[in-house]
Design goal:
By secondary structure, the protein is α/β, with parallel strands linked by helices. It folds into two domains: about 160 residues, 3-Layer(aba) Sandwich (Rossmann fold), CATH 3.40.50.720; about 280 residues, Dihydrodipicolinate Reductase, domain 2 (2-Layer Sandwich). The strands form four sheets. A nine-stranded mixed sheet has the order 18-17-16-15-7-14-13-10-19. A six-stranded parallel sheet has the order 3-2-1-4-5-6, with helices on both faces. It has a two-stranded antiparallel ribbon with strand order 8-9. Strand 4, helix 5 and strand 5 form a beta-alpha-beta unit. The radius of gyration is 24 Å and the shape is globular. The two termini are about 45 Å apart. The N terminus is likely disordered. NADP nicotinamide-adenine-dinucleotide phosphate binds next to helix 1.
Length: about 500
């Protein structure tokens, strides 16, 4: 395939067999912002199947041409691409649209007919880009129309967006509903963090380099801090966020996924089941987050303040938010893993909205050397070695170590050794949704959440929500927008003799 750098020399990248993508929620934000631009980029990179079509479905009245216009508008708005090129034209010609109510069986008959008309596909990938309240409806209707399950006519797979349930009970019910109509190997539960290059690179970093694995344990690592910081507030998502909060929105899925990738044992091979087996072990080893009815999770809500030079309102003054809302926009917690490798090594997780900087990072802090040899010459304290994995926005890995300050007798100062994805390899880093759409079409679920992971994660999180509900209505701690969260989040760290990193 000339012109495709991924297929040069020995680096042959697989291309999926011919496929049709069916997007439920085709008129929505996710489709416009992420999915349509991802399809364009995949096509530009020669990664789409030789014969590829997409059928969009939603209630909005639109025809094929209307959906194609929406595709072109999406490229302009969200991909910074003028959609007049051959790639956009040829992809647009393979986009189709069906409008209708998602609980109407006639929609699924029309879909079946459309799929038959689009000849030559080896398989069909359904994508639920719809509100979670209608996941069950679509799954049932697909089953009733004979579009679920395995078939001799080719593969069928389904991508389910986040959130996957709102607690353990609803997650179990959703898993049961999906499994009534699809086998687990057909189900791809998305967590877009897993599609990020640096997150995948974490596995390569750990298991393709001999250097770090021997020290990746309780003997050498003091603790791990995982931060998911956003500068944005609730924006237009109040209706969803009011019922979710930071613990559900960020911790149950994204931060838990990051933690398991840091903490997992080496898989016996890079196969979906082996990797996911080792990840679930981590969650199963985690101590409960609630002890004697008390949740070990600090929660808080942002008050008015300043972010990036602009004055912003407090959470309760945001459009669509209840003026006396107790939804948390910040959480900080300590995970303790009862495993041979990690006993006694805390994993501190924090996430919040309206923090000073947008960044997601994993910081692994190593123990100090056993003896402070330079103490006399360099009385200032020696910074511990730190390995920082930047998940976003500047994907990369940095290592902090001590160095001698030039022209001093023996003054020490910390320095960084940096690897940046953007500069190290040249070329654009693919967006998470490109990677995940491609993997689903290839039938590789490694970067998707398995049913037991989702349930194990809710098993840890749900008791916290239950304990919060049972708590007397104490005032929720506040933090000023633009600050690094509430002071209450510092106390548990201080009690351990540690502090949050200043980012
Ligand atoms: N937007 C993002 O960046 C993002 C990121 C992560 C996860 N997600 C997840 O992706 C899913 C879709 O999110 P979104 O932001 O695209 O939502 P959205 O903008 O509200 O779009 C929802 C889509 O579902 C359709 N729909 C069909 N039946 C519906 C019903 N009964 N009620 C409401 N909408 C219905 C809507 O179109 P019609 O009104 O035309 O039917 C629309 O196409 C959600 O599960 C969300 O949590 C989104």
């Amino acid at each position: 395939m000339a012109g495709n750098p991924l297929n040069d020399g020995l680096r042959i990248e697989p291309t999926p067999g011919n496929a049709t993508l069916v997007i439920f929620g085709a008129s929505g934000d996710l489709t416009r912002r992420k999915l349509l631009p991802a399809l364009y980029r995949l096509s530009r990179g020669h990664r789409l199947p030789a014969r590829f079509s997409a059928i969009g479905i939603a209630r909005t009245n639109m025809d094929d041409e209307g959906f194609r216009k929406q595709f072109r508008d999406s490229l302009r708005e969200f991909a910074g691409v003028e959609p007049g090129d051959d790639i956009a034209r040829s992809l647009a010609a393979h986009l189709y649209y069906l409008s209708g109510e998602l609980d109407d069986p006639a929609v699924y008959q029309r879909l079946t007919a459309r799929l038959q008309e689009i000849d030559g596909a080896d398989g069909v990938l359904f994508y639920l880009a719809i509100p979670p309240s209608v996941y069950g409806t679509v799954i049932r209707q697909l089953g009733a129309a004979g579009l679920g399950g395995r078939t001799s006519e080719g593969w069928r797979r389904i991508i389910v967006e986040k959130p996957f349930g709102t607690d353990l009970t609803t997650a179990r019910a959703l898993n049961a509903e999906v499994h009534r109509h699809f086998e687990e190997e057909q189900v791809f539960r998305i967590d877009h963090f897993l599609g990020k290059e640096t997150v995948q690179n974490l596995l390569v970093f750990r298991f393709a380099n001999g250097m770090f694995e021997p020290i990746w344990n309780r003997r050498y690592i003091d603790h791990v801090q995982i931060t998911g910081a956003e500068t944005v507030g609730v924006e237009r998502r109040a209706a969803y966020y009011e019922g979710a909060g930071a613990l559900r929105d960020m911790v149950q899925n994204h931060l838990m996924q990051l933690m398991t990738l840091v903490a997992m044992e080496p898989p016996i091979a890079f196969t979906a089941e082996s990797v996911r087996d080792r990840k679930i072990d981590v969650l199963l080893s985690a101590q409960p987050l609630v002890n004697n009815g008390r949740p070990n999770v600090v929660r808080a809500q942002y008050a008015a303040g300043w972010v990036a030079g602009s004055e912003v309102p407090g959470y309760c003054r945001e459009p669509g938010v209840n003026g006396s809302s107790t939804t948390e926009t910040y959480v900080a917690l300590r995970m303790q893993l009862d495993s041979w490798r990690w006993a006694g090594v805390p994993f501190y997780l924090r996430t919040g909205k309206r923090l000073p900087k947008r960044t997601t990072e994993i910081a692994i802090q190593f123990k100090q050397p056993p003896l402070q040899v330079f103490k006399a010459a360099s009385p200032s304290s020696v910074s511990p070695n730190l390995l920082v994995i930047n998940v976003q926005p500047d994907e990369g890995i940095s290592l902090r170590f001590e160095a001698k300050v030039p022209a001093t007798r023996m003054q020490l100062a910390p320095v960084m050794m940096n690897f940046r994805y953007g500069t190290a390899f040249g070329g654009p880093v693919p967006e998470a949704y490109e990677t995940l759409l491609l993997d689903a079409m290839l039938g590789d679920p490694t970067l998707f959440a398995r049913h037991d992971f989702v349930e194990a994660s809710w098993t840890l999180i749900t008791p916290v929500h239950e304990a919060w509900r049972a708590e007397a209505a104490a005032a929720l701690p506040q933090y000023e927008a633009g600050e690094w969260g509430p002071k209450e989040a510092d106390a548990p760290m201080a009690a351990d003799g540690r502090r949050w990193r200043t980012l």
